[in-house]
Specification:
The strands form two sheets. A six-stranded mixed β-sheet has the order 6-5-4-3-7-8, covered by helices on one side. The protein starts with a strand and ends with a strand. The protein has three domains: 92 residues, no CATH class; 57 residues; 127 residues, no CATH class. Helix content is 37%, strand content 13%. The protein is built from ten helices and eight strands.
Length: 315
Amino acid sequence: MLCVLVVVMRNPVRKTDRGTTSHQTVLTAARAVIDDSAPIRATAKMHAVHYSTLCRYVKRVKSAPEAELPIPTIRATSPIGEFLPMSRKRLLLPIHDHCKRPPLYGMSTKEARVLVYQCAVKFGVNHPGQWDKAQRAREDLLSGFLARNPQLSIRTSEATSLARATGFNKTNVKAFFDKLSVVMERHTFEPNDIYNVDETGVTTVQKPSKIIPRKGAKQIGALTSGERGSLVTVELAVSASGNSIPPMFVFRRVKFHDHFIRDGPVGSIGVAHPSGWMAENSFVVFIKHFIHHAKPSQDRPVLLLLDNHNSHFVC
């Protein structure tokens, strides 16, 4: 499928009347100057054409037959960086490939503008001189391109570590499900006996919401418990039937005190670790906390699925 990609200004404000005259009017004035030897200034005034525009097109119309070229069409003086009809896949496929290609290296807006500039240079498309100076297209072109291709959007990417990206491969996933199938065949688990365990990080100081201040105020504040909060890890376990185990909090402290979880969820516990993340000793405390609430037994085992390294075990 062919498309035409044209630079679209975000807030176009015309400052001159150049480029508004029809092609037929300019061509008629140019023919009058060439064929009838009419004065350029008088002819430009008669046809309401700018003097410099008429001079430029008189030269082009004279040189076109000599070079066996078609009559030039009217356009603005400065190039607007428009792309001639080209295949849509030339621009869409590289962007889609970057989004799907592991290890999750997406294409940023700056890289997309560089790609557009490289396509313009490779295919010999007329483009503004500012592109050559910056080695990339302008932001206005990318905005217009996204508006014409609704299947693309600009989103904030989620940070994914290299270890997680490389560990999530076909071999590891197959090994996980093979072991899981063996466990499922060995034991008969009910939905309320299958728990998924995961951890998340929260901060003690939440981001203030937007307010409506008086116009002209230079400094706007919002009352919080602190200016910079500390990280708190929350370990959660939820069963397939929707039941949940009271969470465990890991505080970024050396010693844990009972008032850390005051007014917290009923049955929740807390531990302390200098890093604020889940460690080996903290996980043992959580397993004991989980056994206390889930109450597994030899006749009624419980399957625990861990998010870390796609592992699981039966307790």
